[in-house]
Amino acid sequence: MSNSTDSWSRFDRRERLLRFFGLLAGLVILVAAWRAMEVNYGYAVTAPRELADLFGRMYPPNVGYSRKIVGPLLETINISILGTALAIVMAIPVAFLGASNTAPNKPAYLLGKFIISFTRSVNVIIWALIFVVIFGPGALAGVLAISIRSIGFTAKLIAEAIEEIDRGSVEAITAAGASPVDVLIYSIVPQIKPAFISVATLRWDINVRASTIIGFVGAGGIGVPLQTEINYFNWEAVLTILISILGLVLISEAISAYLRKKVM
Amino acid sequence: MLTVDNLEKTYDSGDKALKGVSFEVSGNEIVAIIGPSGAGKSTLVRSINRLTEPTAGRVSLDDTEVTGLDKSALRDVRRDMGMIFQEFNLVERLTVMENILSGRLGYLSTWNAFRRNFPPEDIKRAREILSRVNLEGVENNRADELSGGQRQRVGIARAVIQRPKILLADEPTSALDPDTSREVMSLLTDIAHEDDIPIIINIHEVDLAVDYADRIIGLSDGEIVFNGPPDDLDQAARDKIYRGGESIADREGPSAGSSTDSDDVIAERGD
Ligand SMILES: Nc1ncnc2c1ncn2[C@@H]1O[C@H](COP(=O)(O)OP(=O)(O)OP(=O)(O)O)[C@@H](O)[C@H]1O
Ligand SMILES: [Mg+2]
Q: Residue A160, Cα to own-chain centre: how many angstroms?
Protein backbone atom coordinates (compact mmCIF):
# COMPACT_ATOMS: atom_id res chain seq x y z
CA MET A 1 0.00 0.00 0.00
CA SER A 2 1.36 3.37 -0.82
CA ASN A 3 -0.20 6.69 -0.25
CA SER A 4 1.50 10.01 -0.87
CA THR A 5 2.82 10.47 2.68
CA ASP A 6 4.46 7.04 2.74
CA SER A 7 6.40 7.37 -0.46
CA TRP A 8 9.62 9.21 -0.44
CA SER A 9 12.29 9.65 -3.05
CA ARG A 10 15.67 11.26 -2.81
CA PHE A 11 15.19 13.54 -5.80
CA ASP A 12 12.12 15.18 -7.20
CA ARG A 13 11.25 15.00 -10.92
CA ARG A 14 13.16 18.14 -11.91
CA GLU A 15 16.30 16.98 -10.10
CA ARG A 16 16.06 13.56 -11.75
CA LEU A 17 15.91 15.14 -15.19
CA LEU A 18 18.85 17.41 -14.38
CA ARG A 19 20.87 14.46 -13.18
CA PHE A 20 20.04 12.46 -16.27
CA PHE A 21 21.14 15.22 -18.65
CA GLY A 22 24.23 15.89 -16.56
CA LEU A 23 25.26 12.27 -16.90
CA LEU A 24 24.53 12.30 -20.64
CA ALA A 25 26.65 15.44 -21.14
CA GLY A 26 29.50 13.82 -19.20
CA LEU A 27 29.42 10.76 -21.47
CA VAL A 28 29.38 12.89 -24.64
CA ILE A 29 32.43 14.82 -23.48
CA LEU A 30 34.25 11.59 -22.63
CA VAL A 31 33.59 10.07 -26.07
CA ALA A 32 34.54 13.29 -27.86
CA ALA A 33 37.81 13.52 -25.93
CA TRP A 34 38.61 9.88 -26.65
CA ARG A 35 38.08 10.34 -30.38
CA ALA A 36 40.11 13.55 -30.44
CA MET A 37 43.12 11.65 -29.08
CA GLU A 38 43.29 9.50 -32.24
CA VAL A 39 44.70 6.53 -30.35
CA ASN A 40 46.79 4.14 -32.46
CA TYR A 41 45.20 0.83 -31.55
CA GLY A 42 48.05 -1.03 -33.16
CA TYR A 43 50.24 -0.14 -30.17
CA ALA A 44 47.58 -1.31 -27.79
CA VAL A 45 47.62 -4.76 -29.36
CA THR A 46 51.38 -5.19 -28.92
CA ALA A 47 51.48 -3.58 -25.46
CA PRO A 48 51.22 -6.81 -23.40
CA ARG A 49 54.11 -8.36 -25.32
CA GLU A 50 56.24 -5.23 -24.92
CA LEU A 51 55.47 -5.16 -21.24
CA ALA A 52 56.50 -8.76 -20.74
CA ASP A 53 59.64 -8.10 -22.75
CA LEU A 54 60.52 -5.02 -20.64
CA PHE A 55 60.06 -6.96 -17.43
CA GLY A 56 62.20 -9.74 -18.76
CA ARG A 57 65.00 -7.30 -19.41
CA MET A 58 64.54 -5.53 -16.06
CA TYR A 59 64.61 -8.67 -13.96
CA PRO A 60 66.60 -9.37 -11.88
CA PRO A 61 67.40 -5.88 -10.59
CA ASN A 62 71.07 -5.01 -10.65
CA VAL A 63 72.02 -5.27 -6.99
CA GLY A 64 75.61 -4.19 -7.52
CA TYR A 65 74.35 -0.97 -9.08
CA SER A 66 72.62 0.03 -5.85
CA ARG A 67 75.95 1.26 -4.45
CA LYS A 68 76.11 3.81 -7.23
CA ILE A 69 72.73 5.35 -6.46
CA VAL A 70 73.34 6.05 -2.78
CA GLY A 71 74.76 9.48 -3.68
CA PRO A 72 71.86 10.55 -5.93
CA LEU A 73 69.34 9.21 -3.39
CA LEU A 74 70.90 11.31 -0.62
CA GLU A 75 70.87 14.26 -2.99
CA THR A 76 67.16 13.69 -3.59
CA ILE A 77 66.49 13.75 0.14
CA ASN A 78 68.61 16.86 0.56
CA ILE A 79 66.76 18.62 -2.26
CA SER A 80 63.42 17.78 -0.69
CA ILE A 81 64.46 18.96 2.77
CA LEU A 82 66.21 22.15 1.66
CA GLY A 83 63.46 22.92 -0.86
CA THR A 84 60.77 22.51 1.79
CA ALA A 85 62.69 24.56 4.35
CA LEU A 86 63.25 27.38 1.87
CA ALA A 87 59.59 27.19 0.81
CA ILE A 88 58.45 27.59 4.42
CA VAL A 89 60.71 30.59 4.98
CA MET A 90 59.22 32.26 1.91
CA ALA A 91 55.67 31.06 2.56
CA ILE A 92 55.33 32.51 6.06
CA PRO A 93 55.28 36.19 5.03
CA VAL A 94 53.12 35.30 2.03
CA ALA A 95 50.67 33.53 4.36
CA PHE A 96 50.33 36.60 6.58
CA LEU A 97 49.66 38.73 3.50
CA GLY A 98 47.20 36.20 2.12
CA ALA A 99 45.18 35.88 5.36
CA SER A 100 42.38 38.43 5.51
CA ASN A 101 42.83 39.08 9.23
CA THR A 102 46.56 39.77 9.17
CA ALA A 103 47.03 41.44 5.74
CA PRO A 104 48.00 45.08 6.36
CA ASN A 105 45.82 46.31 3.49
CA LYS A 106 43.86 45.20 0.45
CA PRO A 107 46.67 45.44 -2.16
CA ALA A 108 48.96 43.40 0.12
CA TYR A 109 46.21 40.80 0.52
CA LEU A 110 45.76 40.56 -3.25
CA LEU A 111 49.53 40.29 -3.72
CA GLY A 112 49.57 37.41 -1.23
CA LYS A 113 46.73 35.66 -3.05
CA PHE A 114 48.47 36.21 -6.40
CA ILE A 115 51.76 34.68 -5.20
CA ILE A 116 49.82 31.72 -3.84
CA SER A 117 47.99 31.03 -7.11
CA PHE A 118 50.91 31.79 -9.40
CA THR A 119 53.49 29.52 -7.72
CA ARG A 120 50.94 26.73 -7.54
CA SER A 121 49.79 26.93 -11.13
CA VAL A 122 53.24 26.25 -12.65
CA ASN A 123 54.35 22.62 -12.53
CA VAL A 124 57.55 21.68 -10.74
CA ILE A 125 59.13 20.38 -13.96
CA ILE A 126 58.65 23.77 -15.59
CA TRP A 127 60.15 25.55 -12.59
CA ALA A 128 63.07 23.09 -12.75
CA LEU A 129 63.61 23.81 -16.45
CA ILE A 130 63.62 27.54 -15.75
CA PHE A 131 66.15 27.24 -12.93
CA VAL A 132 68.37 24.85 -14.89
CA VAL A 133 68.52 27.52 -17.59
CA ILE A 134 69.37 30.22 -15.03
CA PHE A 135 71.71 28.38 -12.65
CA GLY A 136 72.84 25.45 -14.77
CA PRO A 137 72.06 21.78 -14.11
CA GLY A 138 72.38 20.41 -10.59
CA ALA A 139 70.85 20.28 -7.17
CA LEU A 140 70.63 24.08 -6.73
CA ALA A 141 68.13 24.33 -9.59
CA GLY A 142 66.21 21.46 -8.00
CA VAL A 143 66.07 23.07 -4.56
CA LEU A 144 64.82 26.34 -6.04
CA ALA A 145 62.23 24.62 -8.25
CA ILE A 146 60.88 22.61 -5.33
CA SER A 147 60.78 25.61 -3.01
CA ILE A 148 59.11 28.04 -5.42
CA ARG A 149 56.57 25.45 -6.43
CA SER A 150 55.76 24.75 -2.75
CA ILE A 151 55.19 28.36 -1.67
CA GLY A 152 51.58 28.50 -2.82
CA PHE A 153 50.44 25.27 -1.19
CA THR A 154 52.25 25.97 2.07
CA ALA A 155 51.22 29.63 2.26
CA LYS A 156 47.60 28.86 1.40
CA LEU A 157 47.19 26.30 4.18
CA ILE A 158 49.02 28.45 6.72
CA ALA A 159 46.90 31.45 5.70
CA GLU A 160 43.77 29.39 6.29
CA ALA A 161 45.03 28.44 9.74
CA ILE A 162 45.69 32.12 10.48
CA GLU A 163 42.19 33.05 9.38
CA GLU A 164 40.73 30.45 11.72
CA ILE A 165 42.48 31.61 14.89
CA ASP A 166 40.47 32.67 17.89
CA ARG A 167 40.51 36.48 18.09
CA GLY A 168 39.89 36.45 21.83
CA SER A 169 43.45 36.00 23.00
CA VAL A 170 44.68 38.45 20.36
CA GLU A 171 42.39 41.03 21.92
CA ALA A 172 43.33 40.17 25.48
CA ILE A 173 47.05 40.49 24.81
CA THR A 174 46.49 43.72 22.89
CA ALA A 175 44.50 45.05 25.83
CA ALA A 176 47.50 44.40 28.11
CA GLY A 177 49.55 46.86 26.05
CA ALA A 178 51.44 44.34 23.92
CA SER A 179 52.71 45.33 20.47
CA PRO A 180 51.43 43.64 17.29
CA VAL A 181 54.66 41.62 17.12
CA ASP A 182 54.14 40.41 20.71
CA VAL A 183 50.60 39.41 19.75
CA LEU A 184 51.97 37.50 16.78
CA ILE A 185 54.54 35.68 18.89
CA TYR A 186 52.35 35.00 21.87
CA SER A 187 48.86 34.45 20.49
CA ILE A 188 48.90 33.78 16.75
CA VAL A 189 51.98 31.54 16.52
CA PRO A 190 50.90 29.11 19.27
CA GLN A 191 47.51 28.83 17.60
CA ILE A 192 48.83 28.03 14.13
CA LYS A 193 51.70 25.82 15.26
CA PRO A 194 49.92 22.46 14.83
CA ALA A 195 48.67 23.39 11.36
CA PHE A 196 52.10 24.71 10.51
CA ILE A 197 53.90 21.49 11.42
CA SER A 198 51.38 19.33 9.65
CA VAL A 199 51.55 21.46 6.48
CA ALA A 200 55.35 21.43 6.51
CA THR A 201 55.61 17.65 6.88
CA LEU A 202 52.87 16.99 4.34
CA ARG A 203 54.62 19.25 1.84
CA TRP A 204 57.97 17.61 2.53
CA ASP A 205 56.41 14.26 1.74
CA ILE A 206 55.07 15.61 -1.57
CA ASN A 207 58.47 17.17 -2.28
CA VAL A 208 60.31 13.87 -1.81
CA ARG A 209 58.30 12.50 -4.71
CA ALA A 210 58.81 15.64 -6.78
CA SER A 211 62.56 15.48 -6.11
CA THR A 212 62.75 12.06 -7.74
CA ILE A 213 61.63 13.37 -11.14
CA ILE A 214 63.17 16.81 -11.51
CA GLY A 215 66.45 15.07 -12.43
CA PHE A 216 64.86 14.37 -15.83
CA VAL A 217 65.43 18.00 -16.75
CA GLY A 218 68.84 18.09 -15.06
CA ALA A 219 67.82 19.50 -11.70
CA GLY A 220 69.68 16.87 -9.65
CA GLY A 221 68.72 13.87 -7.56
CA ILE A 222 67.88 10.27 -8.41
CA GLY A 223 66.09 11.34 -11.61
CA VAL A 224 69.45 12.05 -13.26
CA PRO A 225 70.79 8.46 -13.20
CA LEU A 226 67.27 7.17 -13.88
CA GLN A 227 67.11 9.09 -17.14
CA THR A 228 70.67 8.10 -18.09
CA GLU A 229 70.02 4.40 -17.53
CA ILE A 230 66.76 4.57 -19.50
CA ASN A 231 68.64 6.20 -22.36
CA TYR A 232 71.24 3.40 -22.32
CA PHE A 233 68.51 0.71 -22.06
CA ASN A 234 70.09 -0.39 -18.79
CA TRP A 235 66.85 -1.91 -17.60
CA GLU A 236 68.25 -3.90 -14.66
CA ALA A 237 69.68 -0.65 -13.23
CA VAL A 238 66.40 1.10 -13.93
CA LEU A 239 64.55 -1.46 -11.83
CA THR A 240 67.04 -0.99 -8.99
CA ILE A 241 66.39 2.77 -9.09
CA LEU A 242 62.61 2.33 -9.20
CA ILE A 243 62.71 0.04 -6.17
CA SER A 244 64.88 2.54 -4.29
CA ILE A 245 62.43 5.36 -5.13
CA LEU A 246 59.54 3.26 -3.89
CA GLY A 247 61.37 2.62 -0.63
CA LEU A 248 62.22 6.30 -0.21
CA VAL A 249 58.64 7.41 -0.84
CA LEU A 250 57.23 4.86 1.60
CA ILE A 251 59.64 5.92 4.32
CA SER A 252 58.98 9.63 3.84
CA GLU A 253 55.25 9.03 3.84
CA ALA A 254 55.49 7.12 7.10
CA ILE A 255 57.63 9.80 8.76
CA SER A 256 55.33 12.58 7.62
CA ALA A 257 52.19 10.74 8.73
CA TYR A 258 53.77 10.07 12.13
CA LEU A 259 54.74 13.71 12.64
CA ARG A 260 51.33 14.98 11.59
CA LYS A 261 49.62 12.62 13.99
CA LYS A 262 51.88 13.71 16.81
CA VAL A 263 51.02 17.41 16.63
CA MET A 264 47.25 16.98 16.43
CA MET B 1 40.76 58.21 38.55
CA LEU B 2 38.98 57.35 35.34
CA THR B 3 36.92 60.07 33.67
CA VAL B 4 34.58 59.32 30.81
CA ASP B 5 33.26 62.48 29.22
CA ASN B 6 30.48 62.59 26.64
CA LEU B 7 31.63 59.37 25.01
CA GLU B 8 29.96 58.44 21.73
CA LYS B 9 30.27 55.47 19.44
CA THR B 10 28.57 55.10 16.10
CA TYR B 11 29.52 51.87 14.35
CA ASP B 12 30.19 51.79 10.61
CA SER B 13 26.87 50.04 10.27
CA GLY B 14 25.19 53.23 11.55
CA ASP B 15 24.32 51.75 14.97
CA LYS B 16 24.55 54.46 17.64
CA ALA B 17 25.81 52.32 20.52
CA LEU B 18 26.83 55.18 22.86
CA LYS B 19 25.10 58.55 22.82
CA GLY B 20 27.19 60.78 25.05
CA VAL B 21 28.07 58.82 28.19
CA SER B 22 29.77 60.56 31.12
CA PHE B 23 30.84 59.22 34.53
CA GLU B 24 33.80 58.99 36.87
CA VAL B 25 35.32 56.09 38.74
CA SER B 26 37.91 56.39 41.48
CA GLY B 27 39.35 54.88 44.65
CA ASN B 28 38.60 51.20 44.98
CA GLU B 29 35.02 51.44 43.86
CA ILE B 30 33.25 48.48 42.28
CA VAL B 31 31.03 49.89 39.55
CA ALA B 32 28.57 47.56 37.89
CA ILE B 33 27.20 48.50 34.51
CA ILE B 34 23.82 46.91 33.91
CA GLY B 35 21.40 47.16 31.05
CA PRO B 36 19.50 45.10 28.51
CA SER B 37 21.22 43.31 25.65
CA GLY B 38 22.38 45.80 23.04
CA ALA B 39 22.36 48.73 25.50
CA GLY B 40 26.03 49.37 24.75
CA LYS B 41 27.72 47.88 27.84
CA SER B 42 30.47 46.10 25.93
CA THR B 43 30.95 49.05 23.63
CA LEU B 44 31.41 51.26 26.68
CA VAL B 45 34.12 49.24 28.46
CA ARG B 46 35.88 48.46 25.20
CA SER B 47 35.93 52.16 24.33
CA ILE B 48 37.75 52.92 27.58
CA ASN B 49 40.92 51.09 26.46
CA ARG B 50 40.07 51.70 22.81
CA LEU B 51 39.71 48.07 21.76
CA THR B 52 36.70 49.73 20.17
CA GLU B 53 37.54 53.19 18.87
CA PRO B 54 35.04 55.76 20.20
CA THR B 55 33.79 58.28 17.64
CA ALA B 56 33.54 61.28 19.98
CA GLY B 57 34.12 62.27 23.58
CA ARG B 58 36.99 61.76 25.97
CA VAL B 59 38.40 59.12 28.28
CA SER B 60 41.11 60.07 30.77
CA LEU B 61 43.03 57.93 33.23
CA ASP B 62 44.52 60.17 35.92
CA ASP B 63 46.26 62.89 33.89
CA THR B 64 46.46 60.97 30.64
CA GLU B 65 43.84 61.53 27.98
CA VAL B 66 43.46 58.08 26.44
CA THR B 67 41.45 59.23 23.46
CA GLY B 68 43.82 60.96 21.10
CA LEU B 69 46.99 59.05 22.06
CA ASP B 70 49.07 57.64 19.23
CA LYS B 71 49.56 53.88 18.94
CA SER B 72 52.68 53.62 21.03
CA ALA B 73 51.38 55.88 23.83
CA LEU B 74 48.10 53.96 23.76
CA ARG B 75 50.04 50.73 24.38
CA ASP B 76 51.69 52.35 27.39
CA VAL B 77 48.39 53.46 28.92
CA ARG B 78 46.82 50.04 28.23
CA ARG B 79 49.40 48.54 30.58
CA ASP B 80 47.62 50.46 33.33
CA MET B 81 44.22 48.97 32.50
CA GLY B 82 43.61 45.28 33.10
CA MET B 83 40.81 43.65 31.14
CA ILE B 84 38.77 40.54 31.92
CA PHE B 85 36.57 38.90 29.30
CA GLN B 86 33.40 36.86 29.19
CA GLU B 87 35.01 34.05 27.19
CA PHE B 88 38.28 34.32 29.20
CA ASN B 89 40.29 34.87 25.99
CA LEU B 90 43.27 32.79 27.04
CA VAL B 91 45.77 31.33 24.62
CA GLU B 92 44.38 27.82 24.94
CA ARG B 93 47.50 25.99 23.86
CA LEU B 94 49.80 27.80 26.30
CA THR B 95 50.25 26.94 29.96
CA VAL B 96 48.60 28.76 32.85
CA MET B 97 51.94 30.34 33.74
CA GLU B 98 52.54 31.57 30.20
CA ASN B 99 49.02 32.99 30.06
CA ILE B 100 49.47 34.87 33.32
CA LEU B 101 52.87 36.20 32.28
CA SER B 102 51.38 37.46 29.01
CA GLY B 103 49.94 40.28 31.10
CA ARG B 104 53.51 41.63 31.33
CA LEU B 105 54.16 41.65 27.57
CA GLY B 106 53.66 45.41 27.45
CA TYR B 107 56.87 45.76 29.48
CA LEU B 108 58.95 43.23 27.56
CA SER B 109 61.16 43.82 24.52
CA THR B 110 60.17 41.87 21.43
CA TRP B 111 63.33 39.78 21.64
CA ASN B 112 62.60 38.80 25.24
CA ALA B 113 58.97 38.11 24.35
CA PHE B 114 60.18 35.83 21.58
CA ARG B 115 62.36 33.91 24.02
CA ARG B 116 59.69 33.96 26.74
CA ASN B 117 62.35 35.60 28.85
CA PHE B 118 60.45 37.31 31.67
CA PRO B 119 62.37 39.07 34.47
CA PRO B 120 62.54 37.22 37.82
CA GLU B 121 60.24 39.79 39.51
CA ASP B 122 57.49 38.96 37.03
CA ILE B 123 57.84 35.25 37.70
CA LYS B 124 57.85 35.78 41.44
CA ARG B 125 54.76 37.95 41.16
CA ALA B 126 53.06 35.41 38.90
CA ARG B 127 53.54 32.79 41.62
CA GLU B 128 52.10 35.08 44.27
CA ILE B 129 49.06 35.82 42.14
CA LEU B 130 48.67 32.15 41.36
CA SER B 131 48.08 31.49 45.04
CA ARG B 132 45.89 34.57 45.39
CA VAL B 133 43.50 33.27 42.74
CA ASN B 134 43.78 29.75 44.10
CA LEU B 135 45.45 28.11 41.14
CA GLU B 136 48.53 26.59 42.76
CA GLY B 137 49.48 23.29 41.25
CA VAL B 138 48.06 23.88 37.78
CA GLU B 139 50.61 26.46 36.61
CA ASN B 140 52.11 24.04 34.11
CA ASN B 141 48.80 22.76 32.76
CA ARG B 142 47.63 23.97 29.41
CA ALA B 143 44.79 26.47 29.63
CA ASP B 144 42.46 24.19 27.66
CA GLU B 145 42.68 21.58 30.42
CA LEU B 146 41.02 23.85 33.00
CA SER B 147 37.39 24.32 34.02
CA GLY B 148 35.56 27.54 33.22
CA GLY B 149 35.99 28.94 36.70
CA GLN B 150 39.70 28.15 36.69
CA ARG B 151 40.12 29.73 33.29
CA GLN B 152 38.46 32.92 34.42
CA ARG B 153 40.80 33.01 37.41
CA VAL B 154 43.73 32.76 34.98
CA GLY B 155 42.14 35.66 33.07
CA ILE B 156 41.93 37.66 36.29
CA ALA B 157 45.52 36.78 37.21
CA ARG B 158 46.69 37.93 33.77
CA ALA B 159 45.00 41.30 34.35
CA VAL B 160 46.26 41.64 37.94
CA ILE B 161 49.91 40.96 37.08
CA GLN B 162 49.85 44.12 34.96
CA ARG B 163 49.64 46.08 38.25
CA PRO B 164 46.85 48.07 36.62
CA LYS B 165 45.36 51.31 37.89
CA ILE B 166 41.90 50.04 36.96
CA LEU B 167 40.25 46.76 35.97
CA LEU B 168 37.67 46.49 33.20
CA ALA B 169 35.52 43.38 33.07
CA ASP B 170 33.06 42.59 30.28
CA GLU B 171 30.52 40.12 31.68
CA PRO B 172 33.15 38.09 33.55
CA THR B 173 30.57 35.67 34.95
CA SER B 174 28.22 35.08 32.01
CA ALA B 175 29.94 31.87 30.94
CA LEU B 176 29.97 30.46 34.49
CA ASP B 177 27.45 28.69 36.72
CA PRO B 178 25.87 30.66 39.60
CA ASP B 179 28.20 29.42 42.36
CA THR B 180 31.32 30.00 40.30
CA SER B 181 29.97 33.41 39.31
CA ARG B 182 29.79 34.40 42.98
CA GLU B 183 33.32 33.11 43.60
CA VAL B 184 34.60 35.21 40.73
CA MET B 185 32.72 38.29 41.95
CA SER B 186 34.14 37.98 45.46
CA LEU B 187 37.61 37.47 44.04
CA LEU B 188 37.22 40.67 42.03
CA THR B 189 36.00 42.65 45.04
CA ASP B 190 38.88 41.32 47.14
CA ILE B 191 41.34 42.44 44.49
CA ALA B 192 39.81 45.91 44.34
CA HIS B 193 40.21 46.28 48.09
CA GLU B 194 43.64 44.68 48.45
CA ASP B 195 45.23 46.41 45.46
CA ASP B 196 43.19 49.57 46.02
CA ILE B 197 42.02 49.91 42.41
CA PRO B 198 38.56 50.52 40.97
CA ILE B 199 36.77 47.91 38.84
CA ILE B 200 34.17 48.47 36.17
CA ILE B 201 32.11 45.32 35.63
CA ASN B 202 29.53 44.79 32.91
CA ILE B 203 26.99 42.39 34.20
CA HIS B 204 23.73 40.85 33.12
CA GLU B 205 22.45 39.57 36.46
CA VAL B 206 21.09 42.49 38.46
CA ASP B 207 21.23 40.48 41.69
CA LEU B 208 24.97 39.99 41.37
CA ALA B 209 25.40 43.70 40.67
CA VAL B 210 23.34 44.66 43.70
CA ASP B 211 25.23 42.22 45.94
CA TYR B 212 28.76 43.11 44.98
CA ALA B 213 28.84 46.63 43.54
CA ASP B 214 29.35 49.89 45.39
CA ARG B 215 27.66 51.75 42.60
CA ILE B 216 25.45 50.79 39.68
CA ILE B 217 25.30 52.49 36.34
CA GLY B 218 22.22 51.66 34.31
CA LEU B 219 22.65 51.86 30.56
CA SER B 220 19.72 51.89 28.19
CA ASP B 221 20.00 52.37 24.47
CA GLY B 222 23.42 54.02 24.69
CA GLU B 223 22.55 56.42 27.50
CA ILE B 224 23.07 56.40 31.26
CA VAL B 225 19.62 56.31 32.88
CA PHE B 226 20.71 55.39 36.39
CA ASN B 227 23.87 56.13 38.36
CA GLY B 228 23.80 55.49 42.10
CA PRO B 229 24.25 53.07 44.99
CA PRO B 230 22.52 49.67 44.79
CA ASP B 231 20.07 50.71 47.51
CA ASP B 232 18.65 53.34 45.17
CA LEU B 233 17.94 50.81 42.47
CA ASP B 234 14.22 50.56 43.12
CA GLN B 235 11.59 49.15 40.79
CA ALA B 236 11.15 52.48 39.03
CA ALA B 237 14.87 52.60 38.25
CA ARG B 238 14.81 49.04 36.98
CA ASP B 239 11.86 49.81 34.77
CA LYS B 240 13.70 52.76 33.36
CA ILE B 241 16.78 50.65 32.55
CA TYR B 242 15.06 47.57 31.23
CA ARG B 243 11.72 48.75 29.91
CA GLY B 244 12.46 52.27 28.76
CA GLY B 245 10.39 53.73 31.63
CA GLU B 246 7.35 51.53 31.23
CA SER B 247 6.70 49.91 34.58
CA ILE B 248 5.68 46.34 35.33
CA ALA B 249 2.63 47.71 37.17
CA ASP B 250 1.48 49.53 34.03
CA ARG B 251 1.66 46.33 32.06
CA GLU B 252 0.43 43.72 34.46
CA GLY B 253 -2.17 45.65 36.39
CA PRO B 254 -2.08 47.12 39.89
CA SER B 255 -2.01 43.78 41.74
CA ALA B 256 1.22 42.56 40.09
CA GLY B 257 3.69 41.92 42.87
CA SER B 258 6.65 44.16 42.42
CA SER B 259 7.05 43.89 46.18
CA THR B 260 8.19 40.26 45.93
CA ASP B 261 11.03 41.46 43.72
CA SER B 262 12.40 43.79 46.33
CA ASP B 263 11.88 41.17 49.03
CA ASP B 264 14.20 38.90 47.05
CA VAL B 265 16.80 41.61 46.92
CA ILE B 266 16.60 42.21 50.66
CA ALA B 267 16.85 38.51 51.41
CA GLU B 268 19.94 38.15 49.25
CA ARG B 269 21.64 41.20 50.65
CA GLY B 270 21.09 39.79 54.11
CA ASP B 271 23.47 36.84 53.64
N1 LIG C 1 31.15 45.48 15.78
C2 LIG C 1 29.93 46.05 15.68
N3 LIG C 1 29.50 46.55 14.50
C4 LIG C 1 28.28 47.12 14.40
N5 LIG C 1 27.41 47.25 15.41
C6 LIG C 1 27.78 46.79 16.61
C7 LIG C 1 29.05 46.16 16.81
N8 LIG C 1 29.14 45.78 18.11
C9 LIG C 1 27.98 46.16 18.69
N10 LIG C 1 27.16 46.77 17.80
C11 LIG C 1 25.84 47.35 18.09
O12 LIG C 1 25.97 48.29 19.11
C13 LIG C 1 24.92 48.16 20.05
C14 LIG C 1 25.47 47.92 21.44
O15 LIG C 1 26.13 46.68 21.45
P16 LIG C 1 26.94 46.13 22.71
O17 LIG C 1 27.57 44.86 22.31
O18 LIG C 1 27.81 47.19 23.23
O19 LIG C 1 25.75 45.86 23.74
P20 LIG C 1 25.78 45.10 25.13
O21 LIG C 1 25.06 45.97 26.09
O22 LIG C 1 27.16 44.70 25.47
O23 LIG C 1 24.89 43.84 24.83
P24 LIG C 1 24.99 42.35 25.42
O25 LIG C 1 24.36 42.41 26.77
O26 LIG C 1 24.19 41.54 24.48
O27 LIG C 1 26.43 41.97 25.47
C28 LIG C 1 24.02 47.05 19.55
O29 LIG C 1 22.96 47.65 18.85
C30 LIG C 1 24.89 46.28 18.60
O31 LIG C 1 24.13 45.73 17.56
MG1 LIG D 1 28.15 42.79 25.74
A: 17
